[in-house]
TrEMBL record:
This is Oxidoreductase FAD/NAD(P)-binding domain protein. [2Fe-2S] cluster binds at residues 243, 248, 251, 259. Binds 1 [2Fe-2S] cluster per subunit. GO terms for biological process: pyrimidine nucleotide biosynthetic process. The lineage of its organism: Bacteria, Bacillati, Bacillota, Dethiobacteria, Dethiobacterales. Pfam families: DHODB_Fe-S_bind, FAD_binding_6, NAD_binding_1. Keywords: 2Fe-2S, Iron, Iron-sulfur, Metal-binding. The keyword Iron-sulfur applies. Its cofactor is [2Fe-2S] cluster. It comes from Dethiobacter alkaliphilus AHT 1. Residues 8-106 form the FAD-binding FR-type domain. One of its GO terms (molecular function) is flavin adenine dinucleotide binding.
Length: 277
C-alpha cells in the first residue's frame, strides 16, 4: 500500500544520515517525522523522492523491509534532482511517496541457491533483496554475489561487501574491477568475463542481475551459454521508470508498462517483449 490515500501526495521525511560511498554516490537514510514506517514494501520496489523546491525523481529502495523505521536510497549525482540531493545536509526535509512497481519473486526463490550479479551503482537495487535474504537466511540456499565496478574507489557499500556479507554462512562475495589501483589485490576484468571464469553451476540456482545495459547484455548471454534457463534469470529495469504510476507512458516496452508490470522481470518475460529493453 502507498503512504497516503492519494498516491501522488508525498509524505514528509527527514534525512537522518548521509553516507558518502564514492566521489559521486551517496546513501541517504530517511525517517518519518513521527518515527513510523513510510509504507510496506518489497525488495525491488521504488519510491519517488522530492527535493523541495527543485523537483522529484524515482529511485530504488536500497534498504530491506526486514529493517524497520527507515528507508535508504543510494543516489549517483547525474542530473538536477540528484545534484540537489547531494547538496542537502542531515536534518533536511524531503518528500517520499510510493512504493511503486513489483518486487523480486521471493516465494519463487525460496529454497534455491541465489546468484547476484551487479555492476557499479546497480548494486543498490539488489542490496534490498540481498539483506532480505541475509535476514531470512534459512529460507535460501547458498548465496554468491558477483560485483564489479570501474575501480575499487567506485565500489559502493564497502562495509557490507568486504565485512558483513562474507561473514554470513554459505555466502561468498566475488569482487572485480575494470582497472586496478596499486592497493587492489582482487580480480581485474569485466563482470561477464569474471562470471564465466567463476562458472557457477546453474543447477537449483536463480540469478538476479542489475547493471549498465552493456553489462546486462553480455551477462545474459553468458548465463544462457552456461546453461541457466530464462525463467531463472531475473533482472530489474527500474532505470526506465519515470512517473511510477503508469500515467506518463515513458516506460512502456511494447504494451508493457515497466512501472506497473515491473520493474522486475525474468529473461523469459523479456524475450516476449520488443528488443528495445
Amino acid at each position: 500500500m502507498g503512504c497516503n490515500s492519494n498516491p501522488l501526495l508525498p509524505k514528509i521525511g527527514i534525512v537522518k544520515d548521509i553516507r558518502r560511498e564514492t566521489s559521486d554516490v551517496k546513501t541517504f537514510t530517511v525517517v518519518t517525522e513521527d518515527g513510523s514506517d513510510f509504507f510496506d514494501y518489497e525488495p525491488g520496489q521504488c519510491a519517488m523522492v522530492s527535493v523541495f523546491p527543485v523537483g522529484e525523481a524515482l529511485f530504488s529502495i536500497t534498504s530491506s523491509p526486514t529493517r524497520k523505521g527507515f528507508l535508504e536510497f543510494s543516489v549517483k549525482e547525474l542530473g538536477t534532482v540528484t545534484k540537489a540531493l547531494h547538496q542537502i545536509e542531515p536534518g533536511t526535509k524531503i518528500g517520499i511517496r510510493g512504493p511503486y512497481g513489483k518486487g523480486f519473486p521471493r516465494d519463487f526463490m525460496k529454497g534455491k541457491d541465489i546468484l547476484f550479479i551487479a555492476g557499479g551503482i546497480a548494486l543498490a537495487p539488489l542490496r534490498s533483496l540481498i539483506n532480505y535474504c541475509m535476514d531470512n537466511r534459512d529460507d535460501f540456499g547458498k548465496i554468491d554475489i558477483i560485483y564489479g565496478s570501474r575501480s575499487s574507489d567506485d565500489l559502493i557499500q564497502k562495509v557490507e561487501i568486504f565485512e558483513n556479507w562474507p561473514k554470513v554462512r554459505d555466502t561468498d562475495v566475488h569482487l572485480t574491477v575494470d582497472v586496478a589501483s596499486d592497493d587492489w589485490d582482487g580480480n581485474v576484468g569485466f563482470v561477464p568475463a569474471f562470471l564465466e571464469e567463476l562458472n557457477p553451476d546453474p543447477a537449483g540456482k536463480v540469478t538476479v542481475t542489475c547493471g549498465p545495459p552493456i553489462m546486462i547484455k553480455f551477462v545474459l548471454q553468458s548465463l544462457e551459454k552456461m546453461g541457466y534457463q530464462p525463467e531463472n534469470i531475473i533482472t530489474t529495469l527500474e532505470m526506465k521508470m519515470k512517473c511510477g504510476v503508469g500515467k506518463c507512458g515513458r516506460c512502456n516496452i511494447g504494451d508493457k508498462y515497466v512501472c506497473k508490470e515491473g520493474p522486475v522481470f525474468s529473461l523469459e518475460q523479456l524475450q516476449q517483449m520488443p528488443p528495445e529493453f
